[in-house]
């Protein structure tokens, strides 16, 4: 009966080192090259956006009958989320929280001089739902765009998740 003997310590490393001189058995390793320069796309990712434009599906109709659809919402701060909790209207009806919160973070709506919770509470329900969803997208995920790849050519590109009209994505 033959006994198998274990290789001597260091034999595996000696064999690997010997193979490193043999071009047929050496693994192909590319020499380190210069780091790629940052692209404009990478620079845009690093830039912090704090305001996001939107377009309401129906639009807010003011007292003179003017329809206001285009607006801007800013990112929410911790204070924006905490202050409404002390509001009596929110304490009596927790569903009112989103109205007060949106009144704080919408910075522009059409040609209105100022946006506040009184404006938001008089919006159509579909516009309120749109704004609530838009708020969640920009504050929970940090942006409303997603990086995707074309299923046919694998080319990367971005898609807007917020949409500009109800039902778009």
- What is the N-to-C order of secondary-structure elements (H for helix, E for strand)? HHEEHHHEHHEE
Number of helices: 7
Query: What fraction strand?
Result: 15-25%
What form results from the Cα inertia axes?
Answer: globular
**Which sheet architecture does the biggest sheet show?**
3 strands, antiparallel
Secondary-structure content class: alpha+beta
Straight-line distance between termini: 74 Å
Helix content: 25-40%
Q: How many E-type strands?
A: 5
Rg for CA atoms: 29 Å
**Unreliable parts:** 10-23, 163-169
Average residue-wise pLDDT: 78
Strand neighbour order, sheet with most strands: 1-2-3
Task: Give keywords.
alpha+beta; disordered C terminus; about 170 residues; 7 helices; two-stranded antiparallel ribbon; about 20% strand
Please, could you describe this protein's structure?
It is a single chain. This protein is of the alpha+beta class and 169 residues long. Helix content is 34%, strand content 20%. The protein is built from seven helices and five strands; from the N terminus they run H-H-E-E-H-H-H-E-H-H-E-E. The strands form two sheets. It has a three-stranded antiparallel β-sheet with strand order 1-2-3. A two-stranded antiparallel ribbon has the order 4-5. A hairpin with a 6-residue loop joins strand 4 and strand 5 (156-160). It starts with 10 loop residues before the first helix and ends in a 9-residue tail after the last strand. Mean pLDDT is 78; it is low at 10-23 and 163-169.
Gist of the model:
With 169 residues, this protein is α+β, with helices and mostly antiparallel strands.
């Amino acid at each position: 009966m033959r006994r198998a003997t274990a290789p001597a310590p260091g034999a595996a490393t000696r064999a690997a080192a010997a193979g490193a001189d043999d071009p047929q058995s050496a693994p192909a390793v590319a020499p380190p090259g210069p780091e790629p320069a940052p692209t404009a796309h990478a620079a845009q990712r690093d830039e912090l956006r704090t305001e996001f434009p939107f377009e309401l599906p129906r639009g807010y109709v003011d007292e003179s009958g003017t329809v206001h659809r285009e607006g801007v919402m800013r990112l929410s701060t911790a204070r924006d989320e905490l202050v409404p909790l002390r509001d009596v209207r929110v304490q009596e009806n927790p569903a009112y929280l989103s109205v007060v919160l949106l009144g704080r973070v919408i910075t522009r709506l059409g040609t209105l001089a100022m946006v506040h919770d009184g404006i938001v509470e008089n919006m159509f329900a579909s516009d309120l739902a749109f704004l609530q969803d838009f708020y969640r997208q920009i504050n929970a995920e940090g942006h409303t765009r997603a990086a995707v790849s074309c299923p046919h050519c694998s080319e990367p590109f971005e898609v807007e998740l917020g949409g500009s009209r109800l039902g778009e994505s």
